[in-house]
Amino acid sequence: MIQENKRVYDSEINLIKILIIIIVLLLGIYFAQSTTVIKFDSRIINDFSTIFLSIIFEGIPFILIGALASSIIQIFVSEEAIAKIIPKNKFVGVLIASLVGLVFPVCECAIVPITRRLLKKGVPLSIAVTFMLSVPIMNPVVLLSTHYAFMGMSYMVIARAMFGMVGAITIGVLIGVLHKDSPFKPQAVKKPRGRLHKADCGCGHHTLQNLKHNHDNCSCGHSHNHSKAGNVIIRNIEEIISHTSAELYDIGRFFIMGVFLSTCMQVFIPKTYILSIGGGVLSSIIVMMVLAFVLSVCSETDAFIARGFLGQFTSGSILGFLILGPMLDIKNTIMLCGSFKLNFVAKLIFLIITICFILAVIANIFPLEVLSNALTL
């Protein structure tokens, strides 16, 4: 009971934090527009507020959908279910693993712990890494948000999906060849149990399996199974709400920070300077890939930030932003370093950066419209 009350309390606190952040930002924009104490250029403030709020309001529905879908999947789908649909054959397995995201729309915020448990289940390294890198890109919510963000540019959705899948498969196969030892740290190897949603997923919540007061293994001769159908449904709903609110807080704060920095770049940095960097075949890719890593924006909403750089940066650099971000950012790097050996993490990071850079260069050399049409033939 104490755990349940704490979980509800934590979910309420997370929602309050999100509301406070949004209110403070809105009040800050209003104050900047109306104050007479500090003189601001009204045009700059209007541009900033318009860009900032438009991206925020466009991204919020996809954050909600993505967090809810991810929570349901993590709570009710076991690793065994995922492991069963992935063939053990490495060649067929990496192909299937690259498409699993279409069925299991899990955000990259939770993909590292899930991948770790799949590896403990005996899933080959190449397949598990392909799964980890492709799921956040092939997520239906991500593809839908990309389509909405790049309205009228359907080739961006196709290019993101195809290049992301090719990149994930390539990196998965290469890491399987280059790393033959166990990727786990000694202390990270523990016997897995239960469902996807576990205490080590990093969200701070408990699995439903632990919330049910069920003592079937007790030998005292009395029945201790008090979990009635109604209570189970209520607990399921509470767990979904609790996990969703935690994801909303984690995703929302990075999204708001990402939108803020992106808007600042578009409003305060001179256009001539941005165009001088954004027009370079290589320099534009480097800048956008660094931006993707630093911003650490969830893949459900990163397309709205990337869209803001259309016409200023090359299409290849924008694609590099869209495929690198879900694979590698500050959050994932910290989780990778905490779960796996550093030499494995170093190899993986090198491969991710290299392959994504090469794919972005290819997209810069050849028009994305042509490439996406060729890939879908």
What is the chain-wise order of helices and strands?
Answer: HHHHHHHHHHHHHHHHH
Number of domains: 1
Assign an overall shape: globular
Largest sheet: none
Secondary-structure class? mainly alpha
What is the number of E strands?
0
Average pLDDT:
79
Helicity level: over 70%
Rounded to an integer, what's the Rg over CA atoms? 22 Å
Distance between the termini: 57 Å
Unreliable spans are 188-224
Question: Could you give a short description of this structure?
Answer:
The protein has 377 residues and is mostly helical.
Write the layout of secondary structure elements.
Elements (H helix, E strand, L loop, with lengths): L1 H33 L7 H35 L2 H7 L4 H8 L10 H13 L4 H14 L1 H10 L4 H25 L29 H4 L17 H40 L2 H8 L4 H13 L6 H6 L7 H13 L2 H10 L2 H24 L2 H8 L2
Can you give a write-up of this model?
The protein is mainly alpha-helical and about 375 residues long. It has one domain. It is built from 17 helices and no strands. Helix 2 (about 40-75) runs antiparallel to helix 10 (about 230-270) and helix 5 packs parallel to helix 15 (about 330-340). The chain starts with a helix and ends with a helix.
Give descriptors for this structure.
377 residues, mainly alpha, 72% helix, transmembrane helix, UPF0718
